[in-house]
Design goal:
By secondary structure, the protein is mostly beta strands. Helix content is 11%, strand content 39%. Bound molecules: 2-acetamido-2-deoxy-beta-D-glucopyranose. GO terms for molecular function: cellulase activity.
Length: 369
């Protein structure tokens, strides 16, 4: 089965003086649905694009990297036009970087086997429209739903499904020259100020043992990096989420997240699950830190109203072993259990599957059409 779109960047890239991929990139298709209460759900011809930083960028006539850490090498790339002349971007091979799609499902593997060796991939992808720009989801007074399979994610692993306020064409990127825009996954930002600082709404950060949804508003470069989150275990619901629990993470379930508004202002972020035809209500966030310093609930709502980009990733956490998500007061995992080395040796095949992504008016995404 062919599930691929060829990126044709030539004309747009030449016009913008950008570096070109040395070969065309084959991007996996991932159909999604945009829904409304009046019109039902309409299939969108969307695809996924890997983050820009996962591609090799090297000299036009050689194999010298044009990157220096996460930025461009100043000697090859003192400015945009010189950089475009000196350097090319290699097209990404999605499968070898842990990303594949089938029908309306995308699977992300943390580790991939290359020549019998286990390699760290930890991919991050974004949802791209047919126009070569990121899909801007406006979810104020709306909802988004997704089916997830987290059954192979152990303590310490994080399957993430979230929104960042990137710009639609991927052109905002203060750390390096614009080399390919959204069609090559450029322009990432989040509330930890990776790339640059921007509003972030974590719809799902989860493994088979624990999960949370968290708002991270920003005002300029001041972000609520801790955020306002809801984790059922941390709220005392210890039998709610996990293998064999009320939300049974050994099987697929649907995650529905709603953004209620009143008078154009975000008033609540709420969560429910659907599994085996049963709707299971969960928590609600109705405040989000200091409105004056980070924008709070108001700022989060304004970003949702302007539109945000859907990002998906799988990662683990050498600094804290994801304890903020799943250990101590936050989940049933033991301290240190979720270290990357434990995961790599004991769960090398860990992967997350996101499917059946639908967004639109509140109540419109789960009617089964
Ligand atoms: C998706 O592509 C098909 C086939 O080219 C087209 O008929 C349809 O209108 C497209 N859908 C949207 C929402 O643009």
């Amino acid at each position: 089965m062919i599930t691929a779109a060829i990126v044709s960047l030539l004309a747009a890239s030449l016009a913008a003086g950008q570096s070109l991929p040395s070969t065309a990139e084959v991007r996996p298709l991932l159909p999604t649905w945009k829904c409304s209460n009046s019109g039902g759900c309409v299939r969108q011809n969307t695809s996924v694009v890997l983050d820009w930083d996962m591609r090799s960028i090297h000299t036009t006539n050689g194999a010298t990297s044009c990157k220096s850490g996460t930025k461009m090498d100043k000697s090859q790339c003192p400015d945009a036009s010189t950089c475009a002349k000196n350097c090319v971007i290699e097209a990404a091979d999605y499968a070898s970087l842990g990303v594949s799609t089938s029908g309306n499902a995308v699977t992300l593997y943390h580790y991939v086997r290359t020549g019998g060796k286990l390699v760290n991939a930890s991919p991050r992808i974004y949802l791209l429209g047919e126009d070569g720009k990121y899909v801007m989801m406006s979810l104020l007074n709306g909802e988004i739903s997704v089916d997830v399979d987290l059954s192979t994610l152990p303590c310490g692993e994080n399957g993430a499904f979230y929104l960042s306020e990137m710009v639609a064409d991927g052109s905002k990127n203060p750390n390096q020259f614009n080399t390919g825009g959204a069609a090559l996954g450029n322009g990432y930002c989040d509330a930890q100020c990776q790339g640059y600082c921007c509003n972030e709404m974590d719809i799902l950060e989860a493994n088979s043992q624990a999960n949370a949804f968290t708002g991270h508003p920003c005002k300029g470069n001041t972000c609520d990096s801790g955020g306002c989150g809801y984790n059922p275990y941390a709220q005392g619901q210890k039998g709610f989420y996990g293998p064999g629990k009320t939300v049974d993470t050994s099987k697929v379930f649907t995650v529905v997240t709603q953004f209620q508004a009143s008078g154009g202002r975000l008033t609540g972020i709420s969560r429910k699950y659907i599994q085996n035809g049963r709707t299971i209500n969960s928590g609600n966030i109705n405040g989000c830190g200091n409105e004056g310093s980070t924008g709070g609930m108001t700022g989060m709502g304004q970003a949702l109203g302007r539109g945000m980009v859907l990002a998906m990733s799988i990662w683990n956490d050498a600094a804290q072993n994801m304890a903020w998500l799943d250990a101590g007061n936050n989940g049933p995992c033991q301290s240190g259990q979720g270290s990357p080395s434990n995961i790599q040796s004991q769960h090398p095949d860990t992967h997350v599957v996101f499917s059946n992504i639908r967004w639109g008016d509140i109540g419109s995404t789960t009617k089964g059409n």
